[in-house]
Amino acid sequence: MKMNGAQILVKALEDQGVDVIFGYPGGAVLEIFDALRESSIDFVLVRHEQGGAHAASGYARASGKAGVCLATSGPGATNLVTGIATAYMDSVPLVAITGQVPKAMVGTDAFQEVDITGITSPITKYNYLVQDVKNLPKIVAEAFYIAQSGRPGPVLIDIPRDVSMAVAEYVPYKKVDIRSYKPTLKGHPTMIKNALKLLTQAEKPVICTGGGVISSGAHEEVKKLANLTGAKVVSTMMGLGAFPGNHPDFLGMLGTYGNEAANLAVQNCDCFLALGMRFDDRVVGDPEKFAPRAKIVHIDIDPAEIGKNIAVDIPIVGDIKNVLRDMIAQLKDITPKTNNDDYPHPNVRIEEGLNAPWVLRTLKRIGASKKLIITTDVGQHQLWAAHHLSFNEPRTLISSGGLGTMGYGIPAAIGAQLAHPEKTVVVITGDGSFQMGMPELGTIAELNLPIKIIIFNNGTLGMVRQLQHHYCNKRYTGVFFKKTVDFMHLAKAYGAEGYRIESADEVPKVFKEALENNKFTIIECPIAQEDLVLPIVLAGDGLEKMVFNP
Amino acid sequence: MKHTLAVLVENHPGVLQRVSGLFARRGYNIISLVVSETEDSSISRMTIVVDGDERIIEQVTKQLNKLIDVIKVQDVTNEDTVDRQLLLVRVNADNPAKAEIAQLMDIFRARIVDIGRKSVIVEATGDEEKIEAIIRSLQPFGIQEIVKTGICSMVRGPK
């Protein structure tokens, strides 16, 4: 059947099982929007293209399927860039589609022309500028394959308008085979043997879950392995939920903002098994001082991550689920070990009051019976959420870990909610980040999504203020909002339920109501400007040197 | 230390940009780069000479392999290879000097490929050392302009 390029694109997306696209229209994508009219795919009109990319990313992280966003050429495309970079850093499968000026005008600085394949080359796993309508089915199939296989990541397809208009036969492209792209899935047997030897002989092994455990779907295998080897488990922020947060062997998040138990366990362990993580500087502190007594085993599907930041003793390239299954199979005769090492309890006591840790623990308690998905923005609230909520299942925390993108939480929540209509999606944010993601309140209201947004309002950019506290001798610059927003009026403007918490004893009641009301809800909780995320490891220190009272 | 990498890539537009962009962005230092189609017209071969210690070269290799368009990366630094560079150099030459240069270039198996009123162009191929030696020998005449390619490298067949 003859179709135009736009119809071929939409058909190819349907063949990939796409059910929703987040985007924004424009001149270079008119035909694509026209083709979407006839499609089974839902289109979500966001308020800013960046929100579209983040929503697609939230959808992908909640569902495990590639998220799709669509924007026009020029500014539409450049507005996607932060969202694409965010997805790239966190290995999120994303397919971004942009319109482009007609081929004959490419390179002439035409209206709304930008070299988006050039711009996104360092922040995509791959990108395409479609030259011929006949290649579209192949390109779409490859894009989804590349985005979702191996180490997942964003792929961009740039489609000149004349390609969207050109007519051709639609020939479905079934079998993707890229000779230059063959991810290694199976771990090397000798390396696996060596790793097992280390792990079983270790007295104080620690397993660290990274985001790769979640992408690989290996959470059950991690539980089994931890049980068999008696290892304690810590996690990066991206890995939270890969191992149950309420498990007695779970010590919490490690890193420069890690908690005491996790950091001490890492610095004292004799074997550190890293699963799908990349030893980011926020995770290791000073790399020279990281886990000084430990032999390090690193399992990752991306060979380039192994040995990049930290020298490892045993590298294993492969899909984590595959590798762990192979390991567990060889451990079947072993008696499960217990590890009675005493670490400080990850949940230190916290005083009741309007402070984020206590409020978040109250949310954890009240929301315990519900299926929650938490999205966050970036800043102090994000770290407090990582510490004081409990992520017991994979894909329940959606947060910008690598790029640290403020304004991520609200649009990501839209994607997460559409992927899981049955779950309760809660955005944890601060007054700074909220105002970056604010355009998408309109999208939530329009779709009538029962998303809850909890704003910790301290009238300041708390994380930057905290950095100035530590590193600028408490000289605070450019971090205070001198005009406060009336968030309750704002809630009203968007038709959302609004709660302003005035005292600690209201907190349980407000959360109970909000989690039951099935409505778009904005909750504002004032907290003190002086509150810091503690403990913290300062630049240049090893993880054991935590500062509790700076 | 200098390393020579033989990189097979898909012969698409934009591949060179992806490879050079990778080097720029990650702060690796390219000394020279040669690209050309291979016996299979769908594949190009890049010979990249890059400076760095073992750790950097390992990262360069892994990051190159990660590019979707890269088919194969081989570090041929420690292989027995034939290395060749092409040199074109225009040298000041009055009539007596022309004969002198021609003689001198015979020693290097280089040749004069163009004769101007007061200059000649010399063409030479060879490994880096030979090319350097030719340039040095021409310096006394007065070099007007030098154009060199990067190094092409091929692993020798088993003897």
Fold-level CATH name of the largest domain in chain A: Rossmann fold
CATH architecture assignment name of the largest domain in chain B:
2-Layer Sandwich
Largest sheet of chain A: 6 strands, parallel
Average pLDDT reading of chain B = 94
Q: Biggest β-sheet of chain B: count, sense, barrel?
A: 5 strands, antiparallel
Q: Helix/strand/pairing class of chain B, anyone?
A: alpha+beta
CATH H-level superfamily of the largest domain in chain B: ACT-like. Chain A, domain 2
Count of helical regions of chain A: 21
Strand content of chain B: 35-45%
Number of strands of chain B: 9
Q: Taking all residues together, what is the mean pLDDT of chain A? A: 96
* Radius of gyration of chain A using CA atoms only: 24 Å
Q: Work out the radius of gyration of chain B.
A: 19 Å
CATH top-level class of the largest domain in chain A: Alpha Beta
What is the first-to-last residue Cα distance of chain B? 28 Å
How many domains make up the 3D coordinates of chain A?
3
Any idea what the CATH architecture of the largest domain in chain A is? 3-Layer(aba) Sandwich
Sum up the overall morphology of chain A in one term: globular
Most extensive contact? A-B, 17 and 19 residues
Query: Helix amount of chain A, in percent?
Result: 25-40%
